[in-house]
Amino acid sequence: MLARLQCFTTIGLVLAALAWAAWFGSRGAPGWAFAGALLILLGYALFLGAEFVLLAAVHGEDPAPRATAAELLRAWWGEATTAPRVFCWRQPFHEHAEPDNLGAGLRGRRGVVLVHGFVCNRALWNPWMHDLRRLGVPFVALSLEPVFGSIDAYPPTIDEAVRRIEAATGLPPVVVGHSMGGLALRAWLDAQGADARFHHAITIGTPHHGTWLARWALTPNGMQMRRRSDWLAALAAREPASRGSRFTCFYGHCDNIVFPPTTATLAGARNVHLAGTAHVHMAFHPAVFSAVCGWLGVPAGSSDTGVRAAR
After folding, report:
1. Taking the model in full, what pTM does it have?
2. Structure confidence by residue, pLDDT tens digits, 255-264
3. Where in the sequence is the domain holding 36, given as residue range(s)?
4. 60: alpha, beta or left, given left = phi > 0 and alpha = psi -120 to 50?
5. Dihedrals φ, ψ of 114, to 5°?
6. Cis link prior to 156 (omega < 30° from 0)?
7. What does DSSP say about strands 270-273 and 200-204: parallel, antiparallel, or unpaired?
8. Cα dihedral sign for 87, 68, 202, 264?
9. Domain total for the chain?
10. Which residues contact 284 (CB under 8 A, 6 or more apart)?
11. What CATH number did the domain enclosing 98 receive?
């Protein structure tokens, strides 16, 4: 569903830009033709800019270091160049370009389950999957449905992915969640009592304590990610205090979706701050892939995920 929606959106924007340019160009107004088409195609960058202004304004007394103007600008550029490749290319047109790696000969090799976030699908992880396959790592990447449903609907899909990895390798996997995907992993652990079925959990920009930006959310999963939401409070109350020690949480002071910054941390976890890196771009930070490879027991130095993600 999401791939079709983003496909229609991408094609619609291109057609709208072409129609604008043709209309004003044919009437002898090349300046208006060029400026309007550019605004249609690149207007998202202005929207991203507004998010960075908000995150800076809302930082308040958060214990994470306050981002400098240079760090915010660098993060904005990273997000402005990463987001269209994810939302306008990989996800709408290449959702299944990288199939899961569950072939023969993987017994005894630690695998990984990749769980995307809000308005994403499994193609978010295409650069990861390319490199994981080259490194001989078993993996399953999910597309969570319903896209705008409750996070409580996602645990069965995650459980099936973990079972497939367990069947192929005989080992509990490393589980990785970006953004809302980290909450989906926690919901899976809660619903299934699955503490014995994962090796380590890594979350990237996950709103463990909600996000200020979700105050405007209208979808069930969006409202669950509001600061101090009843859903988050109930989930935290049910979790054993020791579970956090099995998590590594990446967060950042330039995350334009999940802020203030330490809302993406967990008590007892290894919380790692990534400076000058925005929300989607954070998934392709070399430190993140390196940490995953460390828990998988493979050499991260042979990966070029961050480079491929930038192409």
Report:
1. 0.95
2. 999 999 999 9
3. 1-311
4. left
5. -110, 120
6. no
7. unpaired
8. negative
9. 1
10. 82, 127, 305, 306, 309, 310
11. 3.40.50.1820
